[in-house]
Amino acid sequence: MTKILPQLPRVSSPAESAELIEVHEAAVTLGTHTIWRDVHLSIQAGEFIAILGPNGAGKSTLLKAILELIPLSHGSITVLGQPARRGNAAIGYVPQRRHFDADVHVRGRSIVRLGLDGGKWGLPLPFVARANARAAALRVQQAIDLVGATAYADRPIGELSGGEQQRLLIAQALVTQPRILALDEPLDNLDLRHQQAAATVIRRISREMQATVLLVTHDINPLLTAVDRVIYVAHGQIAVGTPAEVITTETLSRLYGTTVEVLHASDGRIVVVGQPDVEEGHHG
Ligand SMILES: Nc1ncnc2c1ncn2[C@@H]1O[C@H](COP(=O)(O)OP(=O)(O)OP(=O)(O)O)[C@@H](O)[C@H]1O
Would you list the domain boundaries of the chain? Predict the structure, then answer.
């Protein structure tokens, strides 16, 4: 298959190592709450990883710690062999629940273009000045095509549905050809059919760009066949492995410290029963 976006160099120098992201004995404390501790992780280039768990478990916190948007209270995280660095241009990031109001008239294409022009993380990207306008426009178009947003990219973004806006935000994160794509609940605005379509698109992006994807979600079902591994965050700890290894009665009961049952529906969907409602117990 043809590689996409070949005409501009990658933003970062590829510090090639087998482990793209290394998390060592990490803990985050916010206020007086320890969100999670003793987190160890090794993430390889090109992996598609879902970050799962109940509300308030610390999924977004884990993503933000990897992006260095939240400091660790203990341990270390390295990304591409370097300490995690805020604004790292090798990471494309789509935060949780961003949307544009109906009165925003900026075209979708311009929103995608912001990813090249330094809107991303508020930092200018060094190669933009050197990139000629045609190559930049082509790259924007390729990112739009890749997420399947071609039909509506020239409409005002405020007129688009939540799912359409979400695709354009993913295109914005992709436009620098990042090595890591960090997506916080990108399936949130989508119905089941579109969730599955989006999962397929993200899987394709990950393969074609050889990008590592870290995707926070509440529901693993639309992603079951797409992901390589899951990180399950609960009760101040994590469990890591394939869905078949982690989403089991035994592993989740151990993680939660109480009996949690994993049921398999006849259509292949997984249902987790008996999760404690709130993530209060582990804090302290
Ligand atoms: N600034 C803060 N000070 C204290 N606690 C915080 C702060 N920010 C977040 N928290 C708490 O940290 C915990 C983890 O939040 P986080 O957003 O990472 O959870 P999550 O698993 O992504 O949840 P959700 O699925 O609801 O989005 C929550 O209990 C939240 O209330």
Answer: 15-90+181-284, 108-177
Asked if 43 and 230 count as a contact pair (C-beta separation under 8 A), the reply is: no
pLDDT, tens only, 85-133: 777 778 888 888 777 888 888 999 999 998 887 644 444 455 555 556 7
d(CA 33, ligand 1 centre) in Å: 10
Which pTM was predicted?
0.84
Mutual angle of helices 162-174 and 108-117, in 10-degree steps: 30
Q: Which atom of ligand 1 is nearest to the CA of 53?
A: 21
What is the complex's ipTM, to 2 decimals?
A: 0.96
Whether residue 144 contacts residue 150, with contact meaning beta carbons closer than 8 Å, is answered with yes
Residues framing ligand 1 (Cβ under 6 A): 30-31, 33, 35, 53, 55-61, 279
Beta-bridged to residue 180, according to DSSP, are: 91, 212
Domain covering 15-90+181-284: architecture: 3-Layer(aba) Sandwich (3.40)
Q: Which residues pair with 26 in a beta bridge?
A: 39
Placement of tokens 């929103």 in the chain = 111
